[in-house]
Write a structure and sequence with these properties.
Layout lengths: L1 E2 L3 E7 L3 H25 L2 H23 L1 E5 L2 E6 L2 E6 L3 E13 L2 E13 L4 E3 L7 H25 L4 E2 L3 E4 L3 E6 L2 E5 L4 E6 L3 E6 L6 E4 L6 H13 L7
Antiparallel strand pairs: 1-2, 2-3, 3-4, 4-5, 6-7, 7-8, 9-10, 10-11, 11-12, 13-14, 14-15
Helix pairs in contact: 1-2, 3-4
Length: about 240
């Protein structure tokens, strides 16, 4: 498939199989329960509820199975029930990506991913739980957007601008600010003893903190840029302080 604006596609991503099965199972269960209730009470309200539930879950399943995304030279294109759309790499402003595991009675059901893109025009696109191999997709998107995002972030950081990464903000003068519950807390650069960036969490350790701070990765915007900035500050290639 070719898009004349973004170039030829080199990788495609289809619907997440397990999520599709879950939607079918939940939809079938609730539709069956609604059907039993409607047949039992024999009222128009019961049948209206049954049709509403069945059609609603049917549309969710069709929406899930119909969605597909393509990686291209200059961005991504995707197809949904409402048509086809495209996003250039340069239009992406924020990337939220995080992994989480689901356990039922100590039985691991697998690792799932949340991936959300926000463009400079304010368009939001949630992908993670809809697509297969969302971690591979996130890695590709982060790789293509890193050079330009990092260049802008470094320039603003060195100019003294406070960079907003969602639940974490950093400033050359102040240090690292993070939000827990409804309050913001601060760790000065000289007090930041440890940090860690992964697909699931961002960990921060301060000299004046008894415990490490763990923030879900999906709450952090552009975590790939934040990780590089932390590394450069630690190595001394980015100056901090007044």
């Amino acid at each position: 498939m070719r898009n004349h604006t973004l170039g030829p596609s080199f990788q495609s991503f289809g619907p997440h199989f397990r999520i599709s099965l879950v939607l079918v199972a939940i939809g079938g269960l609730f539709s069956w329960l609604a059907f039993i209730a409607a047949a039992e009470f024999r009222s128009w309200i019961g049948w209206a509820i049954f049709y509403f539930v069945a059609i609603g879950f049917g549309l969710l399943v069709v929406r899930q199975l119909f969605f597909r995304l393509w990686l291209r030279e200059s961005g991504i294109s995707y197809r949904g029930l409402l048509g086809a759309h495209k996003i250039h790499w340069r239009e992406i402003d924020r990337i939220y990506f995080g992994s989480y595991e689901i356990h039922v009675h100590y039985i691991a059901l697998g690792t799932f991913y949340r991936l959300r893109l926000v463009t400079k025009q304010g368009t939001k696109l949630s992908l993670g739980e809809r697509l297969h191999s969302a971690d591979v997709l996130a890695d590709q998107i982060q790789g293509y957007t890193l050079p330009e995002m990092l260049r802008k972030a470094v320039s603003e950081f060195e100019s003294g601008v406070e960079l907003d990464f969602g639940k974490i903000r950093i400033s050359r003068k102040k240090g690292v600010m993070y939000q827990r519950w409804f309050a913001w807390h601060e760790i000065r650069w000289e007090d930041l003893t440890t940090y860690g960036v992964s697909d699931s969490h961002v960990n921060l350790g301060g000299a004046k903190k008894t415990f490490q701070v763990n923030i879900a990765a999906e709450k952090i915007a552009n975590i790939h840029v934040l990780g590089v900035l932390f590394d450069r500050v630690r190595k001394g290639t980015l100056r901090v302080g007044a």
